[in-house]
User: What shape does this take?
Amino acid sequence: MPSWATLMSQAFNGLALGTLLALVSSGLTIILGTLGVLNFAHGALFTVGAYAIFVIFQYTSSFLLALLIGSLFMLALGLLLERIIVRLFYDRPHEDQILVTYGVGIVLVEALRTGFGSHAQRVRLPSWGTGVSELGFMMYPTYRLQLIGMVAALLVTLYLVLYRTSLGLIVRAGIDNPGMVGILGIDVRRTFMIVFAVGCVAVGLAGMLYAPVVAVSPDMGASFMAQSFVVIVLGGLGSFPGAVIGGLIAGEIIAITSAFNSAYSEVMLYGVMALILVLRPQGLFGSEGRV
Amino acid sequence: MSLLEVEKINTLYGDSHVLFDLSLHVEDKEVVALLGRNGAGKTTTLRTIMGVLAPRSGTIRLGGKPIGGLPPSAIARIGIQLVPEERAIFGSLTVEENLRIAALTAEKPWSLDRIYGVFPRLKERRTSLGKTLSGGEQQMLAIGRALIRDPRIILLDEPFEGLAPLIVRNLVDISRELAAEGRTMIVVEQNVAAALSFADRVYGLNNGHVVYEGSAAELRQKPELMTSFTGVGSHAAG
Assistant: This one.
């Protein structure tokens, strides 16, 4: 039985992982819900984000400035990928969409491997994120606390875009019934490029913020990719609240199980997913018969 | 020149031919009813006019301008608005958001208050999610979404289907008021009596062909004329 202190610190680790998974999965789920494309390059885009901060943070002393430049880079990459590749596959079968995005992912990861090598490399912590914080009941790394706060702020921003803007209105309606959005005079495909790019920025930012916690390596996105699939199934395909709640649940399951025996953390995650799917086949926040 | 002219359209679902050289026209401020059995091609006609289905041949003109082959979003912006049979309410949006998204691309949208004036029930439920509405409320919202765009023609597909008699009476009254205000509409309805109560003119459809054209007043007096396309005559009007 792990100590109380270990459990508490794992609960915080779970929160950090959970918010990151929520951000990664939000990007995945709004792209899936709106475009109908399951983006298998999502894990690679997480890695690209991590390498973006690795490179940019070497040239500027400001972590926040590096995040901003990295986000603009992810935005540009997202727009480019949608325009030159993904757009050509909207009318193709889902298998083709999966194959082409999987291929894009391989190209991105191998490009990183060629450019930076396969070995893991450190990204230094921002100057304001070093050391540990005294929480009264335990000590916890300062940057991890800041990470939770920053990701939470990004999730709130994404919420405001989705629930307080006309673009968000179109995205949410498009997830419900894209055909009817068209019948109401809106060319839903015009929003596809923006949604894909927003999804890329979301997952890229997750990679950037996570980079100082672990070392960056070309394959770091793979486990996030698999876990974010579990999250969107758990939460309900295409549902933003589902991605957030599902992400937090998945993060805690992995972290708390690891406190007992880390070998079982993934087993527990898939076990809980199976259980939820038996009880609610559409996921926690999914609507029946969609996507 | 009629407001809407449909000339000899042929529409197919995959390999199956549904509409055969179908022609009809709708004048400004006129209400036209399409009547016929299930599978006669009524819904297909509306979906073809809206651009959801592309006609294989034939022409569709609104105000003299051809619109055949345009996507639904372009046709909606020109001023044709389909209220689909399944209502297609956005379930995860509130009532008010459903109305606001409908108004987004309209040139001169109605105010929300004007819609709530027509459907007071929608005002009471304006913060409710679409998926929590009753069938009647969904239909009000579906019609409200069309009205808020102030379109030149509304296409109503089975607006009274599956609703309680009291709700149907309420919706028929509202349809009658809209007709009296000079709104142009095409209505497809199994409830022949309800449709005839506010239509000016009727097309009878059978197996994708127009088999009858006449005034609604004439059919109200001689329901036996409907046998060619409903098969049940006076019974259907009861």
